Amino acid sequence: MGVQVLFHGCLDDFLPPAGRGQPIMPPTLRRTSLKDLVESLGVPHTEIAALTLNDCPATFETLVEPLGGDHVMVRAWPPSAQSVEHTLQPPRPRPARFVLDVHLGRLARYLRLLGFDVCWRNDFGDAELADMSALQSRILLTRDRRLLYRRQIVHGYFVRSDDPGRQVEEVCHRYGLHDEIAAFKRCARCNGLLVKVDKASVAGRLEARTLLYYNDFYKCARCRHVYWQGSHFARISAWVETLKQQVA
Length: 248
Description:
Elements: E1 3-7, E2 32-33, H1 34-40, E3 50-53, E4 56-58, E5 63-64, E6 72-77, E7 97-100, H2 105-113, E8 117-119, H3 126-135, E9 139-142, E10 156-158, H4 164-175, E11 194-197, H5 199-202, H6 208-213, E12 217-220, E13 226-228, H7 233-245
Helix pairs in contact: 2-4
């Protein structure tokens, strides 16, 4: 039996350049599920929105039988594909909530700045990340594609760019986050919510020039870090507005 697999759209990102845009013929030596088949070729199941087997809708549990002489064509589409009718991906959590791997610390800070609930530590293990994603309905963002092979992960995305600024744009586009941005309500350091406080209550923690020029202050309810709209505020606000105006 000949088996061919064709990945459409941005799923090509996971393939060697020479294998993009054309069917791949994997060595199918045993009975296998479509999930195991596509992941053996380097494409995580969390990146795939639809599968067909000989042009019939299929699921990740659909089996490919190695016996017999029939030709088998498997096609896979990403969530962005306009032709996807029977999506394998359930609706994402709303509002969006995230857990990020250890390599995405700056992205975590940027997403928190935009108001999103983001779990990140520099010592997360793979099993802990997968469990948090599954048990807390969080979208797992990672630069490790093999982490996304774990079966319990329903919502996950392999971040392509290695530039934190581009990563934010990428994630906002992938999940259509532009309407959910509510900037400056979370602590970029720890993810806690910010609350407005009286100037007098934090005066002892601030420099004299800060007290002279600023009157509005906010404190993280979790780590107690103090924020105010300093000289960087206009630049960050302009960046936030640019993100919100982008078409998802």
